[in-house]
Amino acid sequence: MKTLLLRPWGLSWARNPASTARAPGRADMGNLSRARRVTAALGFIGLLFAVLGIIMIVMVPSIIKQQVLKSASMMMENRPGFLKLMMTFVFSTLGQRAFMNRTVGEIMWGYDDPLIHLINQYFPNLLPFKGKFGLFAELNNSDSGLFTVFTGVKDFSRIHLVDKWNGVSKVNFWHSDQCNMINGTSGQMWAPFMTPESSLEFYSPEACRSMKLVYKEQGVFGGIPTFRFVAPNTLFANGSVYPPNEGFCPCRESGIQNVSTCRFNAPLFLSHPHFYNADPVLAEAVTGLHPNPKEHSLFLDIHPVTGIPMNCSVKLQLSLFLKSVKGIGQTGNIQPVVLPLMWFEESGAMEGETLETFYTQLVLMPKVLNYAQYVLLALGCVLLLIPIIYQIRSQEKCYLFWISFKKGSKDKEAVQAYSEFLMTSAPKGTVLQEARL
């Protein structure tokens, strides 16, 4: 009788020399330990990247917002390198360069910019402009704010002076109380009865500050006498040249004013065109600038009696400070320079029917009345002299008549007496003579 032995497959295969497992050695244990360490390291790195990704998702928008508020690369000079690298990547992705070619119309009235579009898409209330970007894109159908001015009813010397602008009596853009003051008028009218010692003070919302113009000379516009007021050399001088302007600093060369504090911290500077009345080094650093007073100075011609502007020409230049920023590839090797962006002239003059009416009522009529008073005085004197002369002549005639009458009476008496004498008898020897009167 044969016996059948049943064995499990595992035991049967274990007896197969080709498939028999051997006990693990030291080398296998080392490989296993190494694999575990690599796996743990990869897991830790993955966890770190995941945490970093979450942090970036939360923080990057606020970081980008902060940097945009501080005007991108120029404000990132002292920022960490990874932020500079990030902004360089963003600029490169959107095709942004340090310089671009645009038409005058695009610069003034706006053009589509992918960076502006991206910012407005994710941060809709961050920038003050929507859609196209242009220097004057947002100025159509706009104003310079709400001015509250004195009427001069209680104090005539304060007529047209600004009490508040947009509800505030002073601004907070600058670093001194004097520079933050809102002085003068809104720039449309001034107090009447000006003298050469008068000055023109006004608040400019565009420049975020008060300005003062000084008297230069008398003139005539359209037959109307005027006083010409111009900008003094100290208008845009820096604090080292003119200490009262220290509050507008940080300053660069004299003759340009830093307006970054009221223009979203962008490195913008305000000056006369071609850097007129500024440090010569500014004009020498840019090719093609030739400052001269005839083309680049500003003036206002005011009728001194009424304080109304008759003719004006306000010329200002907007410049941008540029320099290379390490870590921002788009800035390249730009040398530090205050580069003019544009300069503009805002001029106006009274003309047409308004000028004729103004001339008639405020020049011609006062002249006529001025001459008329002397004519009337002379005519009155002449008319007054007529009865006086007549009276004097009448008195002279009466006097002559009286004199002649009196003389005639005396002559008659003399004739009569002489006749009586002749009629008397003459003594003997007397010779009678004929007497003729």
UniProtKB/TrEMBL annotation:
Q: Which family does it belong to?
A: Belongs to the CD36 family.
By what name is this protein known?
Scavenger receptor class B member 1
Q: Which UniProt keywords apply?
A: Cell membrane, Disulfide bond, Glycoprotein, Membrane, Receptor, Transmembrane, Transmembrane helix
- Keyword Membrane tagged: yes
Compartments it resides in = Cell membrane; Membrane, Caveola
- Organism field: Capra hircus
Please name the Pfam families in this protein's record.
Answer: CD36
Biological process GO annotation list? Answer: cholesterol efflux; cholesterol import; plasma lipoprotein particle clearance; recognition of apoptotic cell
The molecular function GO annotations come to: lipid binding; low-density lipoprotein particle binding; scavenger receptor activity
Cellular component GO terms, alphabetical: caveola; cytoplasm
Principal cellular location given in the protein's record: membrane
Family matches, as InterPro entries: CD36_fam
Q: Which residues form a coiled coil?
A: none
Q: Where are the transmembrane segments?
A: 38-60, 371-390
Q: How does it sit in the membrane?
A: Multi-pass membrane protein
